[in-house]
Automatic annotation (TrEMBL):
Keywords: Signal. Residues 44-71 are annotated as: Disordered. Belongs to the OprB family. This is Carbohydrate porin. The keyword Transferase does not apply. Residues 1-30 form the signal peptide. PANTHER family: PORIN B. Residues 50-61 have a biased composition (Polar residues).
């Protein structure tokens, strides 16, 4: 249980009214960026580094065929080029993920999930002359089932990252916020209905993998209440200061509320703060690299977050002692190009590494590590294909394992038909300790705006338990169309 704050905010009510008016003026259509991020397609591309004109020309690929680039829009390119002069960008995207368990886990089976996204970005400097101000909105349609719950037996690591935050929603408001840039972009301020994960602990390559272990943040970070990821949005604000062309620091303050009663509710349009239990405060330092004559680009992020909410500890949830604690998180993330394959900005071999740590008394995870590689542009005849592999290892808090053992020993749970237990803390099938995950995928560029991706996933110690389920092998298929 969590202590609730019984308060109402006149300030946020005024902001929400302003955003509702703006939203109804522009309509319910949108330019789909990937569901968690600000990039313009499901292919995350690093921000262009600050380089001179000669260097910039080396990052341009005149031989590239735009009709084979999945980062381009399939149908709306010319429409958005026309609308840009009026400060409007619209679009739509359709992302599907299918996962079939072929060995191990609870049982064999296949599940499908999808997201259809509509969003709109409006530049009010072009529209009415308000320098540096813009608004952004996204609406989602979500449908499907969760293969990890149905067949794998892992309640925390989804085989389909697209599945999460409540599902089967005809309409779900993802975000609606205003952004103000000052001092020629040196200062960037956002406020409104937002997700912490849209701005903090963001990797431009995280969602090139179908396991939720990395998308959109390392799973340990986004699994907690305060660090709200897609598609849950809360009231929040963030200020970013670009300390140099390559470095920045940012800090934010966001409503902390649980799934279901908070984070916008079922439709995303429940904007009251009755469910709020505290404030989540993240801070992050970032560096965007650009090494050598071949411009080996990359990113480095170091951050932390603190939730002022008071949560029941794992031991108190088992014993009823009533003990509570706050929650703190830390993360270190990097992705660095090791070798450039061609002149396109993000075409090369990247190494990706993440570490996330959470308060062990109240968090689902203790430590989570990702190590992977992503190779783009390695095949001259198919320059927009990509290949990725990712290893993940995570541990759960010892206090959680002891609390689960206490539940079993004191008859608080019953065996289920699969050999595990029902109603254990953390939705686990047994006493949890650690787990390893693996994913390999191949992204095939089909045409402008279209990429398909065969995927292989492997779960070792399913659900961080031992001797409950056999290791699970999963075959998957992902499609992304940017209209």
């Amino acid at each position: 249980m969590i202590n609730k704050l019984n308060y109402k905010s006149y300030f946020w009510t005024c902001i929400s009214a302003g955003f509702v008016l703006t939203f109804h003026c522009v309509g319910a259509v949108a330019k789909p960026v990937l569901h968690q991020k600000r990039t313009k397609t499901h292919k995350h591309i690093l921000p262009a580094p600050q380089v001179n004109q000669e260097a910039a020309s080396t990052l341009n690929n005149p031989r590239g065929d735009p009709d084979s680039d999945p980062s381009q829009e399939l149908l709306l390119g010319k429409v958005n080029k026309y609308l840009d002069q009026y400060g409007i960008q619209i679009g739509a995207s359709w992302l599907t993920e299918t996962a079939g368990i072929v060995r191990g886990g609870k049982r064999k089976g296949v599940d499908y999930a999808h997201q259809i996204a509509f969003s709109v970005d409006m530049d009010w400097e072009k529209i009415v002359g308000w320098k540096g101000f813009s608004t952004h909105a996204m609406i989602l349609n979500l449908a499907g089932r969760n293969a990890s719950t149905d067949y794998v037996g892992d309640a925390q690591i989804q085989a389909q990252e697209i599945y999460g935050g409540g599902y089967d929603r005809v309409i779900h408001m993802n975000y609606l916020y205003g952004e103000q840039k000052l001092w020629d972009g040196k200062i960037d301020i956002k406020a409104g209905r937002e997700s912490v994960g849209n701005d903090f602990a963001v990797s431009p390559f995280a969602c090139q993998f179908m396991l939720i272990a990395t998308c959109g943040q390392p799973r340990s970070i986004q699994s907690q209440q305060g660090f709200s990821p897609w598609p849950g949005t809360v009231w929040g604000a963030r200020i970013l200061y670009n300390t140099s062309a390559d470095t920045f620091v940012q800090v934010g303050a966001y409503e902390s509320s649980p799934w279901g009663t908070g984070k916008g509710g079922v439709s995303g349009f429940t904007w009251g703060v009755k469910a709020a239990t505290g404030v989540f405060i993240p801070v992050e330092f970032g560096y965007n690299s650009n090494f050598g004559k071949k411009h080996l680009n990359g990113y480095f992020r170091v951050g932390a977050g603190f939730d002022t909410s008071r949560f029941d500890t794992w031991s108190s949830q088992a014993t009823g002692s009533g003990k509570k604690d706050n929650r703190t998180q830390f993360w270190i993330m990097m992705g660095q190009m090791l070798y450039r394959n061609d002149p396109v900005q993000d075409h090369g071999l990247y190494v990706i590494a993440n570490w996330g740590h959470d308060s062990p008394t109240t968090s689902t995870f203790k430590d989570l590590y990702n190590l992977g590689f992503l190779d783009r542009g390695f095949w001259g005849k198919r320059p927009y294909d990509q290949f990725g592999v990712m290893f993940t290892y995570y541990t759960v808090p010892r206090g959680l394992g002891r609390a689960q053992e206490y539940q079993i020993n004191h008859g608080q749970v019953q065996p289920d038909i699969y050999g595990g237990f029902s109603s254990l803390l953390n939705g686990a099938p047994g006493i949890q300790s650690n787990a390893m995950l693996f994913e390999a995928n191949y992204g095939i560029s089909v045409y402008r705006g279209i990429m398909i991706m065969p995927v292989f996933e492997y779960f070792h110690n399913v659900g961080a338990t031992r001797k409950i389920y056999n290791d699970a092998a999963v075959l998957g298929f992902r499609t992304n169309i940017v209209f």
